[in-house]
Design a protein that fits this description.
The protein is of the alpha+beta class. Helices cover 60% and strands 10% of the residues. Strands 1, 2, 8, 9 and 10 form a 5-stranded antiparallel beta sheet that branches.
């Protein structure tokens, strides 16, 4: 199992059954519909209908966001992981009948939000006016006051600090100045003068950069501030009432979620209808379907409707979508493959190939049995207790399997929350406990772990070469498969004992055999790598170039696996330091309390950091080191018409397997 075989489907049925058949296909989620390209068939324009669905759906989404803002729902872990709400088909139909009522509530929610926004904007503008008028509050005449029968007045500001006396000296006689308020860069003044001195005073003030205050209201600043404050209070009161209305309308939360999904389904159904071809009485549907679903779907449709369905093999030049199917062991890793790229036409599915090493490397990088137990227990509880969506279920299953691998490596290396067993025995029972490693402790023998890392890395790389060999062999290019793979095997396996001899003692016989293999691999590679060139020089130098690429490329790839050592040591050493910090106090009671606090906080932080590191670097070893040997990618993921909802799902959706 890997890439499911795809079939082309052609369905011809009565026009009157088109919507029902599309709805059935949507619930089954096994057919990817392609656009009709038969010019003899008519297409239907659904742009206006789809636009209406989008409009109503956006309204419902906006209303739900408003509710979540003013009346947030208290969500438990069960709610977060519980997945979508399952509904029966008949329940779905009943809920759809209340859509008009729910949309009315949505519009009312949006109306109240608009009132809140408008009130806030108006109140903000009025508050700005109040702040401005506050500087004029001591003035006991309106700001638009211009004088009496015998006097004229100027009310305004000067862009600098000055006093009434200084200003009066610059103005003509019969002018009186009152400074209402001032700051270091502004002076607010009230000037009154005789009618005769008005024009001359105005000329002087213009030269002094005087600016008039513009205010249409014939009320004093204090009166305006009071009126504006009352208006602000009223606006705030209206906003609070609107918030209360939204909170009351929050009872429509579930119905809004239903409407959002319902409209999404309707939109996608009509989008699918636009891809069909129509005659006067029938419609034609074309697309792709996994072969395993062909018979069951055909039997179901032909039993319910007057329809004719045919399945054919796609041609070589068609852009056939890809759907992966793997064993329970490998399926959780499919998301990692998709993260990189879906398999192309000439590719095999790398998921089953990399899954064993993915779990192995992840556990080796995290390498603490205590952390692994937490992962296994936590993910197992979540998988058993909650109804998870497919993607979340795969992710938690992957981390559960990685947790099992982490327990395995942690037990081999003797790391259970670092050295907590030895620390507790030493500090609270006055006993010394030696190593509890089933194999060895990396902190005391890092060279051994480095060699193990390189050894596993070589196996990982040669697995990629083997897959490339199989793919080339299956195309009929058997000599190419041999000449591409054999020298790499000889060179890499030949250099391994020679390289290991730099760190540990290697039997001379093994070193000699490795040297002969290395020489044989180099000779074969130089003689065969340039075989596609027509000239002798081209063949020779092509072989030398291939030798250079192989030597530098594989040497760099093998060194990349030293990250297994680095991350494994990091987890264990940080865990040991956390335990050491927790036992620093001298008093045993204080030491116990400190150790408990530091243990919980420190190890949770260490787990989180190194869990991320293990995930990232394990992905990298697959993407860069393994995939580069055989995998191209570039395939298109199978995208069937399905119930693409956010909050609900049909119970019958689970019957496709």
């Amino acid at each position: 199992m890997a890439k499911l075989k795809m079939k082309k489907i052609e369905l011809i049925a009565m026009l009157t059954d088109s919507k029902k058949i599309i709805e059935l296909l949507q619930r089954r989620g096994v057919v990817e519909i392609t656009e009709n390209d038969d010019e003899e068939l008519e297409n239907t324009n659904v742009t206006a209908v789809v636009g209406e669905f989008d409009k109503f759906r956006n309204t419902a989404v906006q209303a739900l966001e408003i509710i979540d803002n003013y009346a947030p729902e208290k969500a438990s872990i069960k709610d977060l992981l519980g997945g979508k709400t399952e509904v029966e088909k008949h329940e779905f139909g009943k809920e759809a009948m209340h859509m008009e009522q729910v949309m009315g509530a949505a519009n009312e929610i949006i109306k109240n939000q608009r009132m809140i926004n408008d009130s806030a904007n108006s109140a903000s503008q009025l508050q700005i006016k109040c702040d401005m008028l506050g500087r004029w509050e001591p003035l006991d005449v309106p700001l638009n006051f211009r004088g009496t029968a015998t006097t004229s007045a100027y009310i305004g500001t000067l862009p600098y600090l000055t006093t009434a006396e200084e200003l009066e000296e610059k103005l003509p006689e019969n002018c009186s100045v009152e400074v209402i308020s001032s700051t270091k860069d502004q002076t607010n003044v009230f000037i009154i003068c005789s009618k005769e001195a008005y024009d001359e005073a105005g000329d002087t003030l213009r030269k002094l950069a005087f600016a008039h205050i513009s205010e249409p209201e014939s009320r004093t600043p204090k009166e305006l501030i009071s009126a504006y404050s009352d208006e602000i209070d009223k606006l705030n009161s209206d906003a609070e009432k609107a918030k209360e209305n939204i909170t009351k309308l929050a009872e429509n939360r579930q119905q809004l979620r239903f409407v959002i999904d319902y409209l999404q389904m309707r939109k996608e159904k009509y989008d699918a209808l636009s891809d069909l071809g129509f005659t006067e009485n029938t419609f034609v549907l074309n697309g792709y379907i996994p072969e395993k679903f062909t018979e069951s779907l055909k039997n179901e449709i032909e039993a319910k409707y007057t329809a004719a369905i045919t399945f054919t093999d796609p041609s070589e030049d068609e852009d056939v979508p890809v759907l992966l199917e793997n064993s329970k062991f490998s399926t959780p890793i499919e998301e990692i493959t998709k993260m990189y790229a879906m398999p192309g036409k000439g590719d095999v599915d790398p998921t089953p190939i990399m899954s064993f090493f993915y779990y192995l490397f992840f556990g080796m990088m995290l390498s603490d049995a205590g952390y692994g137990l937490l992962m296994v227990i936590g993910t197992t509880i979540a998988l058993k207790k909650f109804k998870l969506e497919t993607t979340m279920k795969k992710t938690l299953t992957m981390f559960r399997n990685c947790g099992v691998s982490t327990v395995f490596w942690g037990a081999l290396f003797g790391s259970w929350f670092g050295d907590i067993v030895q620390v507790v025995a030493r500090n609270f029972f006055d006993k010394e406990i030696g190593s509890i490693a089933l194999w060895f402790e990396p902190l005391t023998d890092p060279v051994k772990l480095l060699l193990v890392s390189f050894g596993l890395g070589i196996l990982h790389l040669l697995l990629g070469v083997a897959v490339s060999f199989k793919m080339t062999w299956d195309t009929g290019k058997k000599l190419d498969a041999i000449f591409d793979a054999l020298p790499i095997y000889l060179i890499v396996l030949g250099i391994a004992p020679v390289g290991a001899g730099m760190f540990v003692t290697v039997p001379k016989t093994l070193t000699d055999i490795g040297l002969y293999m290395l020489i044989a691999g180099v000779v074969i590679l130089v003689l065969t790598a340039g075989r596609t060139s027509k000239s002798i020089f081209g063949k020779f130098f092509g072989g030398l170039y291939a030798l250079y690429n192989t030597a530098t490329g594989y040497f760099g790839d093998i060194l990349s696996y030293s990250r297994l050592l680095a991350l494994g040591l990091a987890t264990g050493s940080i865990a040991s330091v956390i335990n050491l910090i927790g036992t620093m106090p001298e008093n045993k009671i204080v030491k116990l309390i400190a150790l408990i606090i530091v243990f919980v906080v420190g190890h949770l932080a260490n787990l989180a950091i190194n869990l991320l590191g293990a995930y990232v670097h394990t992905d990298r070893l697959q993407f860069v080191e393994l995939f580069s040997k055989f995998y191209t990618g570039g395939g298109r993921e199978f995208s069937p018409l399905t119930v693409n909802t956010k909050y609900i799902k049909f119970k019958e959706e689970n019957t496709n397997d």
